[in-house]
Design brief:
16 helices; 423 residues; Cytochrome Bc1 Complex, Chain A, domain 1; alpha+beta; five-stranded mixed beta sheet; 2 domains
């Protein structure tokens, strides 16, 4: 049973009740992320997410952790370019305690200056960890170059130089502007009593609606065809690659066609990339494709790794697969099989209340509505073979491909091979 409530202060509460399970999920989604930063506070959306766990007027950071652990619950958060999420999962009878902790974090955090300085070190280590991970590094470099000179080209974690400049004043300025009730969606899924929804209404009605400037202007981000960027490190043995092009935004009418195409290309174990480059030719262990979608744009990305002696063959294989799909399309059988696969994934995801929590909130963030599982399934079922064939010819061209490549010394010579293939 799905319900929507809008409070007088414009805060939205979305709930989806599932009987006969033991747990309750509560999510607080703030429609603000890295895209809403400006140069002076670059990195503060992610930093602020950390700071809400660092103590309130009611609880210390340790007490927040102990209270959730003490009821056997889970609490977590993450930051994206376009929203920030805080969420819990507990047994049904402990849901009000989890709600109290989340409300306390969102409304009463201390932003203690000593804790801010300590957390800089933690985030610095987080940045170092991602830089040391070759897959993460090369994929982030791809995004930075594809969306160069736009907010989508920023790192969500921030950078080391500007991290040092973040202070209480910058964090509070961002918090006051963006953590406002009209910018917040609360989701509740699983098994819960209606008294929990009433308590959410009571608590969050206290937040004051701000009648001011537009919080999140609709920013049209432009992609940048950058060709190829090659990075070398002395302490790695494989070549890691991120090859792709601009994708489609969540609101684009062809978005679900791209979902199908991605699955056929490299999004499953029966995909062209996996079957040809791993199973048939044994050139890669890790090879796949994925899509990342924002409001108005996105990425289609092929990523993986190969030994130095295999990489040129793997690169040949990627271009061969892209060319074959463009020239000859896909056959009707794999088209129908993929539609069934995506439909099954949607239905199976809805067996998990936490997945429903995220789906409700994200749909509302991008479309200001949640149309439900039936609409999601029909949006896939209604795609025709003719539509995907036309889409491939218009969109899926090798000329649109860009690449970031990371390998040992001597890898930069691969740029010559790229130019030969790319044309």
């Amino acid at each position: 049973m799905y319900k929507e409530i809008e409070l007088d202060n414009k805060l939205k509460i979305l709930s989806y009740k599932i009987e006969n399970i033991f747990t309750t999920n509560i999510g607080i989604f703030v429609k603000s992320g890295t895209k809403n930063e400006i140069d002076k506070n670059y990195g503060c959306a992610h930093f602020l997410e950390h700071m809400l766990f660092k103590g309130t007027k009611k609880r210390s950071a340790k007490e927040i952790a102990q209270e959730i652990d003490g009821i056997g619950g889970i609490i977590n958060a993450y930051t994206t370019y376009e929203f920030t999420a805080f969420y819990t999962k507990t047994l049904k009878e402990e849901a009000e305690t989890a709600l109290d902790v989340l409300f306390d974090m969102i409304t009463n955090s201390n932003f203690d200056e000593l804790e801010i300085e300590k957390e800089k070190k933690v985030i610095l280590e987080e940045i170092n960890m991602y830089e040391d991970d070759s897959d993460s590094f090369i994929q982030e470099e791809f995004s930075k170059n594809l969306f160069k000179n736009t907010k989508l080209g920023y790192s969500i974690l921030g950078n080391k130089k500007l991290l040092a400049k973040i202070n209480k004043e910058i964090l509070l300025e961002y918090f006051i502007k963006h953590y406002r009730p009209e910018n917040i969606i609360i989701t509740v899924t699983g098994n819960y009593d209606e008294s929990l929804i009433c308590l959410i209404e009571k608590l969050f009605s206290k937040l004051i609606y701000y009648k001011g400037d537009t919080i999140n202007p609709n920013i049209l981000e432009k992609s940048n065809n950058f060709g190829i960027k090659v990075f070398e490190k002395s302490n790695i043995n494989q070549i890691y690659f991120a090859i792709g092009m601009e994708g489609l935004g969540k609101k684009n009418p062809n978005y679900n066609i791209l979902v199908l195409l991605n699955n056929i290309l490299g999004g499953s174990s029966s995909s062209h990339l996996f079957q040809e480059l791993r199973e048939k030719r044994s050139l890669c262990y890790d090879i796949s494709s994925c899509i990342t979608a924002y409001q108005n744009t996105g990425e289609l990305l092929i990523s993986g790794g190969a030994n130095v002696e295999n990489f040129e063959l793997a690169l040949d294989g990627v271009f061969e697969i892209v060319n074959n799909i463009f020239e000859f399309g896909i056959d009707v059988e794999e088209f129908n099989r993929t539609k069934k696969q995506i439909k099954s994934q949607i239905l199976m995801a809805f067996e998990n209340p936490q997945n429903i929590m995220f789906k409700m909130a994200i749909d509302y963030i991008y479309n200001n509505s949640f149309k439900g599982i039936e609409s999601m399934v029909s949006s896939i079922e209604n795609i025709t073979y003719k539509e995907i064939s036309i889409f491939i010819k218009r969109y899926f061209k090798k000329e649109n491909l860009n690449a970031c490549i990371l390998g040992p010394k001597g890898t930069k010579k691969i740029a010559v091979k790229w130019e030969e293939l790319h044309g």
